[in-house]
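Design request, tokens follow.
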């Protein structure tokens, strides 16, 4: 055998050895993970807690109510850290899903698939769309809509009325009024909803996603709870925040900070809040037959303000109020 052929054989043998080592390591890691999951689930069932981004996580853990499990306090899966513990003697598994609907749906489905989950509480902050609500208030909506699923047509295009929930005509927003707008029109359409309670592989059109009605009734007991009003001694909200149950919320992969679009959402869908995850968590939970509720603190006016958006100033306070509401809700659950 020549030196060149010998070198190629040696290189191939090295690669094969590496693949064997990798496969063995992967297999061992998967076996370890499955064993941990088995041990964790044997201590269940759990209530799933899902936030979105670091300030909400900080607010939740800042309450000191979460007590980690002494055996397996966390498990890292697909880049996310699932934390196992208790809150007010309720067994919980907490995860921060990340911003946007894809992250929210992926984390929710992963939680439902891998852990013994009997319900999900999704919480964090949101933009305020309803003039009767204020920054710092808590909303626990009865319904959510995904308002980011569109057909976008030309200015002279035809809208199919059969599947149109609402439509936005860009020409309406021309300044000065009159003329055409080549952005045309957007029509808001239904989701395709698959469910464990429906026919397999057959979707039904759905626009308003309902949270669990029993849990919503439990949430009404929180309506008089005390909420934080001040960031510090020198910066407070003008009035005491309130908690409201039973309004509507909207979700899309859009951070809304535009007064005109804020008004459009309110008048077209009669919603009180806007965020980027809730509808995805609700839809994924309901699809799996899992009870779900959403608790959001209003951090800003979604573009309805004069000047800069208030999320950086009042976001932490809204997140703390949401976390406090979650703790009170868990206390009320049987």
């Amino acid at each position: 055998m020549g030196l060149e052929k010998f070198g190629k054989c040696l290189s191939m043998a090295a690669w094969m050895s590496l693949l064997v080592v990798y496969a063995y390591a992967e297999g061992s890691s998967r076996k370890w993970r499955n064993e941990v999951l088995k041990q964790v689930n044997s201590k269940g069932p759990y209530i799933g807690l899902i936030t979105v981004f670091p300030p909400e996580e900080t607010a939740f853990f800042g309450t000191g109510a979460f007590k980690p499990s002494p055996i397996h306090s966390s498990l890292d899966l697909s880049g996310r850290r699932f934390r196992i513990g208790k809150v007010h003697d309720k067994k919980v598994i907490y995860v921060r899903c990340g911003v946007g609907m894809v992250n929210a749906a992926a984390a929710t489905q992963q939680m439902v698939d891998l852990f013994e989950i009997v319900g999900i509480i999704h919480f964090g902050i949101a933009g305020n769309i309803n003039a009767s609500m204020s920054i710092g208030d808590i909303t626990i909506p009865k319904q959510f809509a995904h308002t980011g699923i569109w057909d976008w047509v030309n200015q002279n295009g035809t809208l199919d009325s059969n599947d149109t929930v609402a439509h936005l005509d860009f020409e309406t927003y021309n300044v000065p009024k009159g003329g055409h707008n080549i952005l045309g029109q957007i029509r808001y359409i239904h989701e395709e909803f698959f469910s464990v309670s429906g026919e397999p592989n057959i979707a039904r059109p759905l626009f308003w996603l309902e949270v669990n009605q029993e849990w919503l009734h439990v949430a009404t007991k929180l309506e008089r709870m005390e909420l934080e009003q001040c960031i510090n001694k020198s910066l407070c909200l003008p009035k005491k925040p309130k908690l409201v149950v039973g309004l509507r919320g909207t979700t899309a992969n859009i951070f809304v900070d535009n007064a005109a679009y804020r008004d459009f959402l309110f008048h077209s869908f009669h919603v009180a809040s806007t965020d980027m995850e809730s509808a995805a968590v609700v839809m994924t939970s309901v699809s799996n037959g899992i009870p779900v509720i959403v608790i959001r603190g209003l951090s800003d006016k979604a573009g309805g303000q004069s000047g800069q958006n208030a999320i950086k100033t009042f976001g932490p306070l809204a997140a703390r109020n949401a976390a406090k509401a979650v703790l009170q809700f868990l206390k009320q659950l049987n």
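Comment from the thread starter after seeing the answer: thanks! Helices lie at 3-42, 54-62, 101-114, 213-219, 259-269, 278-287, 311-332.
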